[in-house]
Design brief:
Radius of gyration: 14 Å
CATH architecture: 3-Layer(aba) Sandwich
Distance between the termini: 29 Å
Strand order of the largest sheet: 2-1-3-4-5
Order of helices and strands: EHEHEHEHEH
Oligomer: single chain
Largest sheet: 5 strands, parallel
Number of strands: 5
Number of domains: 1
CATH class: Alpha Beta
Length: about 140
């Protein structure tokens, strides 16, 4: 497959410290070469709609500038080619309305911030079985 037709993992995170931590965890899990970081919902949606293949997964922060994570999740589920993409919700807040909205939209998993490496790897291992190895 050509580089421009390779699936990516899209991380939508506006906090630079959380993005750095997540990049470190993705490196430890040996899936960082597939990752594209976007800092807001509009940028992420535009990227996913322009890519020739849908992402392998979306790691979604719920509290984003502009378009919220929940609104982005709704838009993703409205797009036929993105509808089945696994969405892993990342949040440091315990908002029951957001959690319920994401459950109804079919969130694959919820990761509470700060995300611990062991929790992260166990959560995503089923998404990338050939890439995740036990150390």
């Amino acid at each position: 497959m050509e580089a421009n037709q390779r699936s990516h993992v899209v991380v939508v995170e506006d906090d630079i410290n959380d993005a750095i931590l997540l990049r470190h965890q993705l490196t430890k899990a040996e899936i960082d070469d597939y990752v594209v970081f976007k800092s807001n919902g509009k940028e992420a949606l535009d990227f996913m709609l322009q890519e020739p293949v849908p992402p392998l997964a979306i790691f979604l922060d719920l509290h984003l500038p502009g378009m919220s994570g929940v609104d982005l999740f709704k838009r993703v589920r409205q797009e036929p080619r993105l509808k089945a993409v696994p969405v892993i919700v990342m949040t440091g807040f315990n908002d029951p309305h957001d959690t319920e909205a994401c459950r109804k939209l079919g969130a694959t998993a919820f990761l509470r911030k700060p995300i611990q490496l062991a929790t992260f790897i166990s959560t995503v291992a089923h998404l990338f079985p050939a890439k995740i190895r036990a150390d």
